[in-house]
Amino acid sequence: MRNEVPSECKLVCIPDEHEMFVKAGRPRRGCQGMKKSLISDCRLAEGRQGMSNQRLRVNANSFAFRMRPQGSSRPDDAKHRQGMSTKFLNTTGLPYCKGCGHHLIARNTAIALEKSGFAPLDTILVTDIGCHGIIDRCFNTHTVHGLHGRAAALGAGITLGLSDPKKKVVAFIGDGGATIGLQHLLEAARLNINMTVIIHNNMLYGMTGGQASGLTPCGFRTTITPEGNPVAGYDICALAHTAGAPHVRRIIGVGDFSEELTEAFKADGLSLVEVVEICPSYGAKLNPGTKLDTIIEASGQKIGLWQTGNKDAYSLQCRENLPSLFEKTPEIKVEFGSKLKRPFSIILSGSAGEGVQLASELLARAAISSGLRVTKKGSYPVTVGVGFSTAEIIISPRGIHFHGISEPDLVIITSKDGLRHNRKRIEAMKCGILFIDESLEPPETAAEVVSHNFRGMGPRNAAIFAVFFFARNSGLISISAMIKAIQDRGLAGKIPIEKMKKNLEGVV
Ligand code: SF4
Fold first, then answer.
1. Which ligand 1 atom minimizes the distance to the CA of 98?
2. Predicted TM-score (pTM) above 0.70
3. Is 28 within 8 Å of 396 (Cβ atoms)?
């Protein structure tokens, strides 16, 4: 979730970030690389029968277009096909393969959210593993990415934690995820959780190589069922409706289906929309010439709406006595300033149990209290007490639309584990700065290397001291802001603040 800067926040803008790290001996230049799409290789569907060696571009004029049901054309179809960015989408270049049905789901979702009157920052888009999930960075909403098949469960938890009826939770899930997390979907339906689930049903696992899922219809060919799937897929709409979802719809995902999505977004309780679409890379290639409506008809399933009358959403019943999760979030007042003028990305890495996540949290708090926006994410092995611990932090004077870091501005390494985990990333740095504990041999890198004795403060304080070192050298966050963050976190008696300050006095 984004940290929003309070409206009273007044940034203190001092000249230019080129002054940053002057003490480290060199001016800074912007080095934000273009983010590469997770799927950069657009796999085009290969030919229909009799054209197997010919590359076939799947677009509105070929596979998807031919499957449009008669009479479904709407005046703004052209807008969809042109891929215009909207209030909700920050790009026209969606990250899917050409012709993938996911494009239309993303665009129709964006249009329908706007039509429904939701604001981007009142919308929480929950995704999980699968090609559909790589859309996160394209939406101007809050986005939460979960484990495979858990989007409905995650969305349900978020919905139950919200008390503001203006907030809208939308869960994106694939057909593979929907069957992996089938029980989560049915529980959300049974409880009638107030959110919308959109199933991207292209009838196979696209991201992992085109295998059959629990929603693959009988006879549909996948990479593991080249003769056609021998068993019928679940009728997920019928299941969800029977379980209790009051608004369920199956649609063929071509053209403009924003009206259908708008109805779902406005419905009370759990609304579920199954969008039947095609994966050109596998589905179209293995089932040439097949029409989506024919597939659904042959499977005995229906296209249309399942609806029951008014039914109280579970979230509405329990919200009255529950505080919102947002209300529990501590308020951090803006008391300091920062001269930061552009987003700045930091990777802090050391050993598990050595306070890396705590140090990054303190840095994040200090940045927020300096009027900046922050994203922070942690990564460490499932065995949380051994191995590396890494935190990725972005601080910025303006909104941060993607929390990933492709090329860090600064990498801080405080132990061997951290170095092992980040070696390749450091070697790939073409600019930026590396702070590394003096006990470690820096890898070959084009980044500027600054060695310092971080572990001299003791292993448990190495990461926090490294963050102090960053604050002291960059001037982007003041030491006072760091100390306030420590005090607010109730750690003033546990962290040797004076010793750290003294150590930094001699640093130039
Ligand atoms: S679902 Fe298929 S066509 Fe769509 S992005 Fe994934 S692999 Fe490409």
1. 3
2. no
3. no
